[in-house]
Amino acid sequence: MTIDVSDFSAYPHRHLLGIEGLFPHEISFLLDRSESYVDQNRQADKKKSTLRGRTIINLFFENSTRTRTSFELAGKRLGADVINMSVATSAIKKGETLIDTAMTLNAMHPDVLVVRHPDSGAAKLLSEKVNCAVISGGDGRHEHPTQALLDALTIRRRRGDLAGLQVAICGDVLHSRVARSNIHLLNTMGARVRLIAPRTLIPDSIERMGVEVFYDMKEGLQDCDIVMMLRLQKERMQTSFFPSVREYFHFFGLDYEKLSVTKPDALIMHPGPMNRGVEIDSEVADDYGRSVIREQVEMGVAVRMACLEVLGLPREIDDSTVRNL
Question: Rounded to two decimals, what is the model's pTM?
Answer without folding.
Answer: 0.92
